[in-house]
Design brief:
about 240 residues; mainly alpha; 10 helices; globular
Length: about 240
């Protein structure tokens, strides 16, 4: 996507940082996250995914000079408590302890790399063309996954998978909304407000997934999940008002 008819003033060092950010935050992190899902299931992975905010906050304090004020810390605590209530399950499918350990490693590693990817591109988002930064970062992620597929010799396998009869209209719409529109809104949050605050607000996604699953898929919504949604919503409001 172009902003007008001229290429933006985008220095090559910034291009390189955006590409590496996309490679780490999309190609590697997303792959590791899916690996964690496969190893230990959605509920455990959802809890491990809550590490994203602490990682972003830590890296923002160390490298961007950011900090959270008292009420923001309170809002952060409310959001994290709500997410844990929503995603926690007392009865989980029984899996091998080694799988859990590997799943935690991949899940925590994915969250850390996502945090690294967003913190390293924060200044570029603020000072350079937003759309071009998003496009270059996405290109880094796509290129990384293509290179990985080629090195593993799995290109033919991927081709056979996409040759199967799939609900392409739904997949295309979901991909456009999740991988393009949602990513731009996600990055816009990091562009417009401190990274530590944006990361906390983004944690509410886990709670809204549960709500939408109830609304659109007919999944159960018990009192524990309702309390979790209420805590998450209150935490978001506190973060927005301070």
């Amino acid at each position: 996507m172009f902003e007008g008819f001229r290429l933006p003033d985008f220095p090559w060092p910034d291009v390189g940082i955006a590409l590496v950010s996309g490679y780490l935050g999309i190609a590697v992190a997303d792959t590791w996250y899916l690996r964690a899902l496969h190893l230990m299931g959605a509920s455990r992975t959802g809890i491990v995914a809550s590490l994203l905010s602490p990682f972003v906050i830590l890296l923002s304090v160390l490298f961007l000079g950011e900090s959270l004020r008292g009420w923001q810390l309170f809002g952060f605590a409310l959001v994290m408590a709500g997410i844990l209530l929503v995603t926690w399950r007392s009865k989980r499918r029984s899996i091998d302890a080694e799988q859990v350990r590997k799943g935690v490693f991949y899940g925590a590693g994915a969250m850390f790399l996502m945090a690294v990817g967003i913190v390293m591109v924060k200044e570029i988002l603020e000072t350079r063309s937003f759309l071009w930064t998003t496009e270059i970062r996405l290109a880094g992620g796509i290129a990384g996954m293509l290179i990985y597929t080629l090195l593993r010799g799995r290109l033919a396998e991927v081709g056979r998978h996409y040759a199967q009869p799939l609900p392409w209209k739904t997949i295309t719409l979901a991909s456009f909304l999740a991988a393009y529109v949602s990513m731009m809104m996600w990055l816009a949050g990091y562009k417009l407000i401190p990274a530590s605050e944006a990361s906390i607000l983004n944690e509410s996604a886990n709670a809204w997934i549960v709500f939408l699953a109830w609304l659109m898929l007919g999944e159960s919504l018990d009192s524990r999940k309702l309390v979790g949604l209420a805590l998450t919503s209150t935490g978001v409001v506190v973060m927005l008002l301070v």
